[in-house]
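Q: What would this complex look like in 3D?
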Amino acid sequence: MRFLHTADWHIGKKLHGYDLIPEQEDAYQQIKAIAKREKVDAVVIAGDLYDRALPSEPAVTALTNMLVDLNRKEKFPLLAISGNHDSGVRLGYGQEWFASTDFFLRTRLADALKPVTLQDTQFFLLPYFEPVQARQFFDDESIRTVNQAMERLVAAMQEKFDATKKHVLIAHFFAAGSNHSDSETLVQVGGLNAVPVDMLAPFDYVALGHLHRKEALQNEPTVKYSGSPLKFSTSEAADTKGVWIIDTDQTPVSVTFEPLKPWHDLVVLEDSFTNLMDRDHAYAVTPEDFVAVNLTDTTPITNVMQRLKTRFPRVIELNRVNQLDVTPDELDVKQVQQDPLTLLGDFFEQVTQHPLTEQQQVWARQALQAAEKEADE
Amino acid sequence: MRFLHTADWHIGKKLHGYDLIPEQEDAYQQIKAIAKREKVDAVVIAGDLYDRALPSEPAVTALTNMLVDLNRKEKFPLLAISGNHDSGVRLGYGQEWFASTDFFLRTRLADALKPVTLQDTQFFLLPYFEPVQARQFFDDESIRTVNQAMERLVAAMQEKFDATKKHVLIAHFFAAGSNHSDSETLVQVGGLNAVPVDMLAPFDYVALGHLHRKEALQNEPTVKYSGSPLKFSTSEAADTKGVWIIDTDQTPVSVTFEPLKPWHDLVVLEDSFTNLMDRDHAYAVTPEDFVAVNLTDTTPITNVMQRLKTRFPRVIELNRVNQLDVTPDELDVKQVQQDPLTLLGDFFEQVTQHPLTEQQQVWARQALQAAEKEADE
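A: Here is my prediction, written as structure tokens for the whole assembly.
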């Protein structure tokens, strides 16, 4: 059979305050188009369908529409698991009905040992889990890490192997050896909680979610992260996002990459403020692109974020790549003491990328007056 | 056909801090037993399945288990709508799949005009809606009230009537003439937003949710509130909760009431403190029953809540039915000023029904010391 492997949709995620749902809907349309063009027999989504355990109503509506469209309208069988960003309970509501149209959603550890067979392949759907869940499931106090749990789980899965079929694992964890980008939760990454790739050798293919860059596992022909469909952080700016297409009728299975084209890209621009603000200076950026700015200047610039946004409306990050060329003595300390409100406003805007509202200015002024009164007393 | 009408399950509701899920699971088992004993062909749930738009994970698990059990295991067709306490979007996730086993869940106004036909009956499932939604749906700026919206909706439904069938409306609103108890949200109750019962005459039966007492509509043989399966407030203490069984093969349809027996009752006790604390004094109350106390005493009693709980562990309310027989002069004002911590503790416990934790006592002491220091300065 032939299936598509994607993961880490993170529906409802915001990028520095920008709603990504329109971008996510565009990426979904591209994934669907690839599935149709490549005539796949199933679509695999390896966890983190939502960005939060409590997704917003617009996020629920967006994901529901995608699942209804892909499974009920386009008739693709779906194989999906919950990731660490999903609430298994909330995402799993309704799963008993989903199988009526070959939508196999698994959110409980125990379900990992009930493979789904489609054509020539047995799929093992292992949702994200904590070691404590495996400890309870196997009733074995010695299980302390994901690594230890996986040893037991893989052995238990192998007992269910039908020797006449191919075997695919769908899972959501950190596989050892991976290089990780910084847009996924790092808490679980590394050390004892990493699963060594060798342990996954019994499977013909392992469809992973969790890390957002497919480059996280580069040298494993049949253990793959699909990566996220969108760039979620500047460390992914240079990535090519996409999905994998897997053909199981060969041994080893054949795996090809199909790229997604970002509707609005995430771009890092490194230059001086003067160049960046110069409209004659051309950058390969559209007004809707998300821009991270690496400023090369060595002098302080006032209102820098607000001014950059007149040129690049969706600036999401501002970094200084060179140290400021001033000593504390050179800073106008008197000025600093005399105008704390302006300073506060600049600081607030640098941090939040929004100017203070009028109400916030009133509050700030009141707080300052109270503080000054105390200082005078 | 023969169907069961229930509503206002409010899964996840807490009663003065007490988790009701075990009580709700017991009530569900009774409803299921009635459905089986009465051999109904379908079960109608007229809104407010959850207590909150964002139900907790235990609430999602509890309701999911009930729906899976009733529909997938016991094979009862289900007809359900969202109420004002539900998030239509969250509850509705998966609804496209539910119909595969005759679970008809409707959460969008437009779906009210797509009747579900089961045997001899057309069911119109009208979820809770705001006038603005009807205004948009009919593209008619003149629609300002639920009343006006219902006039249009009933007319539109009548156009869909199959004359060879019975016609049942499932809805969640305040029907005019009802007496309401105080455990549902009162915001929408009354005045322009009430639907006159006369307007519902075209239907053979109207299965309503929203008000928690079946007595809210007593004189309408075929327009009924089922009421909630549990008592949610002291105003419902004397009620008999239950469900309706409707037979459509007669005209008018026949309607019979089937009572539910509360696992732990909600009881109002009105007596003096001395009598209430006297263990020789028998009250028809189990230790698990929820007890609202109407104290007849006219003198102040210290630590009253804590002491009552030694006798009735689940006191949920404390009211004084007589005015205190003291004047401000008689109160020991000096004592009040000298021991604010004790006073605070008593007050906190009366309001929250929990004593201050040690940490809270530390915070309170620190705050008091700071306040006293200020007063001294």
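A: To summarize the key features: Chain B has three domains: 2-259, 264-326, 329-377. Residues 329-377 of chain B form one domain.
Q: Very helpful, thank you.
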